[in-house]
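Marked as duplicate of an earlier ticket. Keeping the data here for the record.
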Amino acid sequence: MRPEWDDYFLEITQVVAKRSTCLRRQVGAILVKDKHILATGYNGAPQGLAHCEKVGCLREAMNIPSGERHELCRALHAEQNAIIQAAVQGISIKDSTLYCTASPCSLCAKMLINAGVERVVYRGVYPDEMALAFFNEAGVKVEQKS
């Protein structure tokens, strides 16, 4: 059976997430406009920095719950990497849709809002209720798909 577009793009995010080097959660994201993929991203350390799988996870060592103390994490979120990839390539993501394996955090939500992303579609839930409030206030459409 041929998948609907949202399901198709969400399946692709699962493949993208396999590139993640995070020890706690593998997340994949893609930015899509007019049924074309503009950029992809997965969570992991910035270029040139050792990945968590090599040096360990400070947040894990400190027993910090998911969704807290982002500043202690050496990785970028998948959404951030997708935004950066588009910027490096000179691709506008205004009026695009973000597909992601997990709902964005509030930091990513603010970046997506300012970048002009108009819709967010995700599968799993990330523990950050403020992100959904930001999207709602900014008029960004948000949908969770199973």
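See parent ticket for discussion. The two ends are 17 Å apart (CA to CA).
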